[in-house]
Amino acid sequence: MPAAKPLSAYKPFWAKRFGTAKFLPTTRAEMDALGWDSCDVIIVTGDAYVDHPSFGMAVIGRMLENQGFRVGIIAQPDWQSAEPFKKLGRPNLFWGVTAGNMDSMINRYTADRKIRSDDVYTPGGQGGSRPDRCSMVYAQRCREAYSNVPIVMGGIEASLRRIAHYDYWQDKVRRSILLDAKADILLYGNAERAIVEIAHRLAAREPIEAITDVRGTAFVRRRNDSTAQGWFELDSTEVDQPGRIDQHINPYMTTGQQAAEQGSSCALEEAGEFDPMKAGTPVAVNAQADLAGGAKPIQIVRNAGTASVSQPGADKPLPARTGRIALPPRDRTVIRLPAYEQVKDDPVLYAHANRVLHLETNPGNARALVQRHGEGPGARDVWINPPPIPLTTPEMDLVFDLPYARAPHPSYGDAVIPAWDMIRFSINIMRGCFGGCTFCSITEHEGRIIQSRSEASVLREIETIRDKVKGFTGVISDLGGPTANMYRIGCKSPVIEAACRKPSCVYPDICPNLNTDHAPLIRMYRRARALPGIKKILIGSGLRYDLAVRSPEYIKELVTHHVGGYLKIAPEHTETGPLSKMMKPGMGAYDRFKELFEKYSAEAGKKQYLIPYFIAAHPGTTDEDMMNLAIWLKRNGFKADQVQTFYPSPMATATAMYHSGMNTLKGISRDARKGERVDIVKGEKRRRLHKAFLRYHDPNNWPLLREALMAMGRRDLIGNGPNHLIPTYQPVTDGTYESARRKNSTQAGTKTSVVTVGRVQRNEGSEASPTRRGGKATEHDPRDLPKVSARRPKPGQMLTQHTGLPPRAGAGSKPRSAKKPR
């Protein structure tokens, strides 16, 4: 892995003398109180300002403050004009623009493209406090406010849109957000390294246009830009050929072994004799002559020499003709992806570009990427540098030990910020995820290499929460991260880790080079719950159960001490077809974990339950797959309220499948006989059907399910017996579909929120009444069945769609707006 300058190695900026602010200032009055005449950096964010390490603007702001810079915050400004962006004055160095902790489009719209009525990152949970495509709008207003100040864009929204990407909401491929936002540079991933380096270089009066060598950044270059000299350009089809099916690269074979398998060999195995960057050889001279003309395609040629021939000036003769290929060093190679104008109209090339992008994600071997946007003299290249080097444990400790106030800014008063309430007593112990789930964007943002904090740092944070956070009752709500049980887990060999190009360390099975030892995590759990004043430590993050079964001791520790009655796990599906497109393990791992979970729960004398999560309408899922999942749910006694429909987020592998209709995990081809086409669930009715199978117990879904089962030739699943999926009768309902997250969406044509009401409740003490179906009176089934009630549920009764979040406070407390006749 390449070395990186430690975060603590920079000389502090002169403004370090001002010291630390209790809260980063959000007004001129707060700046005056700190003795500041101006801000060096102003961060504009789409989230409310919460000074906590779970909020991106606080992490970046405090990190820059640690380096000596004066940082101001403008949170959720009115974007209708540039005036609110001027309230802190002109920043001395740059604007920092971010949409916040969530992509603004995912935050605003449901998976059915309906507007949500709430926003958990806003005081009071009110929706509408940020614009759509938030980063782009804020950047444009910053440019309007002070046109000559550099704009540095970051956050997950920018990360996932750094390249031409499929946009689910417009159902088209959009160009890089860099061009739409007119930002100067984009930082992707957790950007502490990049933001610190850029801030110090700008403070040293280096122009933003000259900062093109920082890892984890993207920027725009004009064609034939002189700053691109010294780079070798490789066409992306040399990395992944879209016209044929490529085998996955074996990460444990050397370059020479891979070449030998193809009947050739590689000059890089010749101890650098044909290294184009090695001074003093004729090859190097020719290579440097090529570099003088700027970036150009690599010419792959066979060796020109023979064993008995030498060139003038050479120290020794060239080796015998072998057919070996001399490639440039990876750190000076840029891969040219198909242009935006090509991928926007060609799903095959889009899928190809997505495959190459995901191949180049390991910081140890990734190469730079470039993609042309535009045609003719005005064409520009979006240049993406390799990913940032992961933070070391001391650097992680530095980030999380910064002087956070661990509270919302006082200007919000008593207003509740739901996202803050959810995490105020939780602790993040690591970053990254090597699971590689295709529907998830965590790895595209945080990377696959786990970055863990030290045990001491985590314990210090627990003590800080105990001593300083208002309302703490002795219960830590979570000790986790993107995944609960990847703490200090990684590759056994740094050499293999740096060379590996696999998309997942746990699919199709756990890699033999992966260290699966949970002992450090167990030890942390034990020390944490032994701290004075700590009554309980719960694990709220999702558990990777296929990893956990490798450590029964961990499962026993978890089940005995850290489960509050329910434990979330995510099989996502039961059928092999969709699981293979998700890169998730089969149900065998779930069954093994369930067996151990129940065993240790019984030994502890506790009644505890697993809460499995499932996805509907994922690429590669057929109607039969969803039917089989519904049968499994009924057989195992699950009635899901938290339901997730596949949401195509930008840059995810599953999104490339959704757009192209191809399995991008196995390679792609224009030849219909090659590659693998996947079943894509599009259209409102079919997406409703797949979600209805997950909620087979909801009478509102029964008419749709009956119709589908009869069309599938499965009338045997319709009946009133215990082994039938749905009954033949229909209770008193309107028979229409209603989303599990209806209370969070706005109906088309209305401006007021629609609050979910109780769809099915038991009317205790009421008598059965005749039901009309198809205009004919029928007798009600004599069994005790759910009946429709117009009463609203108690606050918090209905759970949200699968987000991992608890019920929103006050849900169901507002009257439901009347439905318009259809």
Could you explain the architecture of this structure?
The chain is α/β, with parallel strands linked by helices and 822 residues long. It contains 25 helices and 26 strands. It has an eleven-stranded mixed beta sheet, sandwiched between helices. A hairpin with a 4-residue loop joins strand 6 and strand 7. Helix 2 (56-66) packs across helix 7. The longest helix has 17 residues, at 587-603. The model is unreliable at 273-277, 281-293, 299-314 and 739-822 (pLDDT under 50).
Topology:
Elements: H1 28-34, E1 41-45, E2 50-51, H2 56-66, E3 71-75, E4 94-98, H3 104-108, H4 134-145, E5 151-154, H5 156-159, E6 165-167, E7 172-174, H6 177-181, E8 185-187, H7 192-203, E9 217-222, E10 232-235, H8 255-261, H9 282-291, E11 296-297, E12 333-336, H10 340-343, H11 347-359, E13 368-373, E14 380-384, H12 393-400, E15 407-408, H13 418-423, E16 426-428, E17 430-431, H14 442-446, E18 451-452, H15 455-468, E19 475-476, E20 478-480, H16 494-499, H17 519-529, E21 536-537, H18 545-548, H19 552-561, E22 566-572, H20 576-582, H21 587-603, E23 609-616, H22 623-635, E24 644-645, H23 653-660, H24 684-694, H25 702-711, E25 771-773, E26 776-778
Helix pairs in contact: 2-7, 11-23, 15-17, 17-19, 19-21, 22-24
